[in-house]
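Exam revision sheet. Question 4 asks you to relate a sequence to its structure. Input first:
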Amino acid sequence: MTKKAAIIKGDGVGPEIVDSMIRVLKTCNSQIELILCEGGSEQWERSGRKDPSYIPDATMKLLEESNACYKGPTTTLPIPNAPRSVAVTLRQKFELYSNIRPIKTYKRVTPNHDLDFVCFREATEGLYTGIEMQLTDDVAIAIRKITRSGCRRFANATMDWAKKYNLNKVVAITKRNILKITDGIFLEEMQNAAQRYGGIEVQELYIDNMMQQLVINPEQFNGTVLASTNLFMDIVSELASGVIGSIGLVYSSNMGDRFAMFEAAHGSAPTIARQNKVNPTAAILSGAWMAEYLGESHIKDAIFRATEQVINEGKYVTADIGGNASTTQMTDAICQIAEKQIK
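Answer key, structure tokens:
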């Protein structure tokens, strides 16, 4: 039975890098049915700002009928009464509670570091629930919602990843000296999960110390899973992407029990949109990961090998990683090598 993936091209550079991702998958003879659909702030603007969501009803119906989703970068407008972000909406709609960003260096791009770890972010709770209240003209509050059940399922997913990839350490990132109750629940569930799975150490680091350690000695986290609540890991993974040289290299998934959404970790970058400049790596690798999720692991392996070869050779790479190639030229180079590997 053919697997279906709904593809949201998104805003800014989204259409360009989604086109790159699709081209690489098709070059590798992927049998996934890719269904293009609308979503993001640009289509919301075109429709006259009438919808309460950046995701039209027709798109949501397609998503519900698909086996997975691929989301190009989308813009969340910082204006009153604008809809909730596409990513947050889909994470909560489909209970995609684990946002996963593998962090890996490439020798040519980051010669001073050799990193290989993964960032696990709880993606449905915390401050991203968007619960805010204006108490007076001068006072507003935001609620950091943490549930034990939410932490438990996230902790189990973290340990599943550690077991699958033979990792024996999880770093739980908190600010438990200040957020005693909410981060207390989070840490308890991480420790409980480690005991259930066995053979996995849980180390707690406070978020401020974690950021310092990630700058001064990131290699210490190799072979570990970094795990935290929504906002903290959003920040940690962004810094990690800077350490490896460019967020344009960071691919990601949003996993739940029955559905997954794949996306580049970076945003819509409107200042370079439609200029054929954006690095397609994160988009292409996210698409390859989606192929694996939908049963085409051989395609994922071929694309990963081809992308690493293109980056380390450095002949056809974009400006953010030291080259002068266009998005199209880098995509072409990856396609050529991946196609040979598939054959």
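Marking note for examiners. The domain at 1-93+270-343 is CATH 3.40.718.10 (Isopropylmalate Dehydrogenase).
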